[in-house]
Amino acid sequence: MFEQLGDRLQGTLKKLRGQARLTEENISDAMREVRIALLEADVSLPVVKSFIGKVKAKAIGTDVSKSLNPGQMVIKIVQDELVELMGAANDALNLAQTPPAVILVAGLQGAGKTTTVGKLANLLKHREGKRVMVVSADVYRPAAILQLKTLAESIDVTYHPSSADQNPVDIVNGAKLAAKNAVMDVLIVDTAGRLHVDQQLMQEIKAVHAAANPVETLFVVDSMTGQDAVVSAKAFDEALPLTGVILTKTDGDARGGAALSIREVTGKPIKFLGIGEKIDGIEAFHPDRIASRILGMGDVMTLIEEAEQKVDKEKAEKLVKKLKKGKGFDLEDYRDQVAQMNNMGGIESLMGKLPGMGNLNLPAGAMGGVMGDMNKSVAIINSMTPKERQFPALIKGSRKKRIALGSGTQIQDVNKTLKQFTQMQKMMKKMGSKGKMMKMMRGMG
Ligand code: GDP
User: Fold this and answer.
1) How many CB atoms lie within 10 A of CB 386?
2) What is the pLDDT of residues 419-438, one digit of tens each?
3) Range of the domain at 51
4) Is 225 labelled as part of a ligand binding site?
5) Is 191 annotated as a binding residue?
6) Which of 49, 101, 107, 361 could form a disulfide linkage to 95, CB 3.0–4.6 angstroms apart?
């Protein structure tokens, strides 16, 4: 889903990621590329313009050049604006209506309405335990009525019969009565599709809407139609008080333009995504998760936010400078690193937010022992003299005994800490010499 857009945006933003310095000029350059990526994804032009404008204003307004990692800051701003564009949070179905709560489903022919009615009915019945009835008011295509009947039977949902010789308003009134008598929680009404927005059918659906008095009026639209999806959503929204949009066929949509434009253009939230032809091919639309997916970044953003709040930037900068000058990494630096990690919720929390690491499925508490050891190390280092911290080679037999006593640990604990420190020191040296260390440290801020 949205792979093409994802690849383009990730490619552009990757160039920024490692940048230690950003100027208005290279922000502008990056934004030019983001703009092209969005246009290629078929995001509507006014939406692209306003999006780029907001990102630029924020990037310049927050003066990203002052942050420890300006490139990463810009990416975060792009992420925030993507989420904002798509609606900030998930809008769930509102079924607060005296039962039966009516859901009216509208859209162009072939958008996936009938399939979506089946998916919603299935979800509400089998996941939420609701009593669900479905009915088709599509009197123009007997095949559509039959399609819904077959679908309803396959998922064991109550089907209210209708036929091509009936009036759609009568069908709706009859179904409402039947749903009420059968003590249904929800009645989902499928409506006639149209090939394009035409006046006569719009009048009809308005009448159907008035009779149904739905608590949810959902516009179903094919994600792959890009900007056309936005145009038809707007037309339907003007005819009917839409409460939300369901974007279908996102499984085949590499571009994602509709997903990014609909909310901004119509002001109506996307509530679900159709992600396949099967009955369970539907998922709730979460703007933040979609933005993360588009940017291919797991939940690294939360990690960056935490680092922003919790990492002592001054200390991190100092360490980078020190290592740059070729000075060694000492026990005091080691202690600082452990403290930073603790501040950010420990190893387990850090790993959970890294892309690819979150699904390692480590048993809960698996890393707890490591943190316990690290905390012991902090106590041990605290019991050393500043000179010992700087020159660990000084720490021999009698000093070890004193340190163990002072920190309430055993000599072997002191040995372990020194060994771990030596390993980390070696790693730092290796990374420092390749310039990787600098990148990693900056990545932390
Ligand atoms: P309607 O005319 O709006 O009622 O559209 P249908 O429900 O008959 O669907 C039209 C076609 O789109 C059918 O072949 C569906 O299987 C297919 N379809 C619907 N939703 C999805 C989806 O989310 N993903 C995919 N791949 N196909 C879908």
Assistant:
1) 10
2) 888 887 887 776 655 555 45
3) 3-89
4) no
5) yes
6) 101
